[in-house]
Design a protein that fits this description.
One of its GO terms (biological process) is protein O-linked glycosylation via mannose. The protein is an alpha/beta fold. It has 26 helices and 25 strands. 41% of the residues lie in helices and 15% in strands.
Length: 756
């Protein structure tokens, strides 16, 4: 059992011995002369107290007793010495015998012994003791490429962060796509005591591209072979994980297993739990050579320093070259080559218990790895079917996975108390900005939202688009929350060009969106739509932050700044591309206005031309946008002139003007101080005017607002007086900032506001 438990038992035994041996000795020696409460006569002569034989006998007994007492005292002295040594060596004993801390970590290679060990480990009365120093950094390496793998990494990281009590250093071998996604995610996640380093996977392709690989992971599935060369030379050990891993325990327990490696053991692996390498799955099945069942490389412990000294790079290359002469390609990527090397060099492996990699693949023997939920350490979804794999307890595993999939990542931003953190400039700046705010200010929550860092996951779904070579391409930009999801398919049908969307969702809602999108033929057929998830935090809808995220991640020279509730006219994408050339948008500061209309009908026969739209206006089926509640917002578009216009015409800025415009991608961002409802677009149009943009109305373009239930934010605006007061305060502060930034020219905004 546990080494520490043995130590405690020895300590207890020694203590009892010291306390009771002298007492028992005296009792025994004294009671030995009595029987039934009376002295026992050893001989007739000894019963006579004054006889010579009695005196001699008494003398011998005293001498014998003194000798025995001295022996007992000597034994006690030795026991005390041993006890003091055990006590003084207690902490050192823990450090020097870490391999005995976790009873369930003994690598055996024998499933029966392992199962017995699990039961014994669960029934032990001695609790597990930490063997990893409190603030010791744990290093984890993950190979990640593409959009889907980036989502998987997030779930893996969540499961690790949920259980961890140590600083973490993730080494991500990523392609350009994954790096962009994950760098933004971790930068905005701001988890304390977590460091991220990226290594360019594309630069490593030449190291493994000569190996033919049939596995669905492709060339990236071979890159774990070159980690000794890729990771920093001063990094001695690392845990390597596949992206389809879920942790059910503290990763420090796995890190502690490194201390059990002996001799030339440099790889910690779990035995493969299928019959793949036994070659009996089907007729003529011919796997790569392996030791017995072989080993699964979804979880690997690498002693990098020793591997480098052993010339690992040369070792695996020679083995791969030799085996490829007959095998022609790998079937399981790096796993085949690892196993071929181990077959020739079995001394390299420390076999991990199978609960460190419970493999949920087809034909798996994973059920032999656990008897109870508490036995589970790491779950590995290593079947191409992933969550659809068949397993006796797959429902439990699936629920565990979904727990982390939908877990609020913001809750994982917890400090590791007692562990010094590396200085984070972004975090320090944020704290400084927040400390300068007055918490007694009635508008404090509004002001605070401006500095809130929202966790952001770019390109949540696969994105693939190359802008048109003629530099006229336009991206539709919009933002939405879960209650507007139904608009996506309709917009995709109306706009065939690229789209950039920022979605404000919780972690659980993000998964609902994923399922919705994957079940939609319309959305799955479009690869030119970038979905960027901004995770919920705080009480306000950060509308302008969302717009900025969507604007920032477009790949075209121009963008159409729209809203999710609007359907663009059919053919608007091509019309705007022609207008960009006609109005020389590349060389002039113009904002092209797309006139906005609305319908109060949920079912609308969408007008296919301007003539049809004008007819519907006359019939009262359509209206100019917000004419009955907010006329000033679009009145400067001059709809009367638009009815008969055949060429673009210029309009002037007026107070509260908020049209939907097409601009170059280098236009200013939206002001983040405006959240929820009110003035979020007005402020942006005002800044465009301050920067001398020319507003030009397009004569043959239009968009129609579809009806929907009032948003939560507009309800708060209408019902909460303090909300309206704070919005007015923010407007005044914005105008003052405009005056300071743009000088005399910005005074007209104050004048216009006073006259409106």
């Amino acid at each position: 059992m546990l080494g520490i438990c043995r130590g405690r038992r020895k300590f207890l035994a020694a203590s009892l011995t010291i306390l009771f041996v002298p007492a028992i000795t005296w009792i025994y020696l004294f009671a030995g002369s009595f029987e039934d409460g009376k002295p026992v006569s050893l001989s007739p002569l000894e019963s006579q107290p004054h006889s010579p034989r009695y005196a001699a006998s008494s003398q011998r007994e005293r001498e014998s007793l003194e000798v025995r007492v001295r022996e007992v005292e000597e034994e006690n002295r030795v026991l005390r010495k041993q006890l003091s040594l055990v006590q003084s060596r207690g902490p050192a004993h823990h450090r020097g015998n870490r391999s005995k801390t976790y009873s369930m970590e003994e690598g055996t290679g024998d499933s029966e012994s392992l199962r017995a060990g699990i039961v014994a480990g669960n029934s032990s009365e001695c609790g597990q003791q930490p063997v990893v120093e409190k603030c010791e950094t744990i290093h984890v390496a993950i190979v990640c490429a593409g959009y889907n793998a980036s989502r998987d990494v997030v779930t893996l990281v969540k499961s690790v962060l949920f259980h961890r009590r140590n600083p973490l250093h993730f080494h991500l071998i990523a392609d350009a796509i994954a790096k962009q996604i994950l760098a933004t995610l971790f930068q905005t996640w701001m988890v304390p005591a977590v460091r991220i380093d990226f290594y360019d996977a594309d630069e490593l392709k030449s190291e493994v591209s000569w190996i033919p690989n049939k596995h669905y992971s492709g060339i990236y599935g071979l890159m774990k072979l070159v980690l000794t060369k890729t990771l920093p030379s001063n990094l001695e050990r690392v845990i390597v994980l596949d992206t389809d891993i879920t942790f059910a325990t503290d990763i420090a327990e796995l890190w502690a297993v490194f201390h059990k490696f002996k001799g030339q053991q440099v790889l910690g692996l779990v035995e493969n739990q299928s019959d793949w390498y036994l070659g009996n799955l089907w007729k003529n099945h011919r796997p790569w050579p392996a030791l017995g069942r072989g080993y699964n490389t979804g979880v690997i412990l690498l002693l990098l320093d020793k591997l480098r000294k052993m010339k690992w790079e040369q070792m695996w290359r020679l083995t791969a070259e030799r085996e490829l002469m007959s095998m022609l390609s790998t079937s399981l990527a790096d796993q085949d080559i690892f196993n071929a090397v181990i077959k020739q060099n079995p001394f390299l492996v420390y076999q991990l218990p199978c609960f460190w990699n419970v493999q949920l693949s087809d034909h798996t023997r994973s059920e032999q790895c656990y008897r109870d939920v508490s036995d589970l350490k790491v779950i590995h979804w290593n079947s191409p079917k992933k969550l659809r794999v068949k397993n006796k307890h797959v429902e439990f595993f699936r629920n565990l996975y979904l727990t982390f999939l939908e877990y609020d990542g913001n809750l994982l931003r917890r400090e590791l108390f007692g562990c010094p953190s590396e200085a984070d400039v972004n975090s320090e700046n944020l704290q400084k900005q927040l400390s300068e705010l007055d918490e007694d200010d009635l508008c404090y929550e509004f002001r605070r939202e401006r500095f809130t860092v929202h966790r952001t996951h770019l390109y949540f779904l696969h994105y693939e688009y190359e802008p048109a070579s003629d530099n006229t391409d336009v991206t539709l930009v919009a933002q939405l929350s879960m209650d507007r999801l139904q608009m996506l398919e309709a917009i995709c049908k109306h706009w065939e060009g690229p789209i950039s969307l920022a979605l404000y969702l919780s972690d659980a809602e993000a998964q609902q969106f994923l399922r919705y999108a994957q079940g939609s033929e319309v959305l799955m057929s479009r690869h030119n739509v970038g979905y960027h998830i901004v995770y919920k935090e705080g009480q306000f809808y950060p509308v302008n932050l969302l717009r900025n995220v969507a604007m920032k991640h477009i790949s075209t020279p121009y963008m159409f700044l729209s809203d999710i509730d609007f359907l663009p006219m059919y053919g608007l994408y091509e019309y705007l591309r022609k207008s960009v050339i006609q109005l020389d948008l590349a060389n002039t500061k113009k904002a092209l206005i797309v006139p906005a209309f609305e319908t109060l009908r949920y079912r609308l026969s969408f007008p296919k031309s301007k003539a049809e739209l004008l007819s519907m206006l006359d019939m009262g089926t359509l209206f100019t946008f917000r004419y009955h509640v907010w006329t000033k917002g679009h009145a400067p578009t001059n709809f009367a002139k638009w009815r008969t216009a055949t060429t673009p015409y210029r309009v002037e800025w007026e107070a509260d003007f908020e049209p939907y415009v097409v601009v170059r991608k280098d236009c200013p961002e939206y002001d983040r101080r405006f959240v929820g409802f009110g003035w979020n677009k007005v402020a942006h149009i005002m800044e465009l005017d301050a920067q001398e943009y020319e507003f030009t109305v397009l004569p043959n373009a239009y968009m129609i607002h579809m009806p929907h239930a009032p948003s939560f934010d507009i309800t708060k605006f209408r019902s909460n007086k303090q909300y309206r007061i704070c919005l007015k305060t923010l407007k005044e502060e914005f105008q003052q900032d405009m005056s300071r930034h743009y000088g005399f020219a910005a005074l007209k905004y104050l004048t216009a506001e006073n006259n409106s």
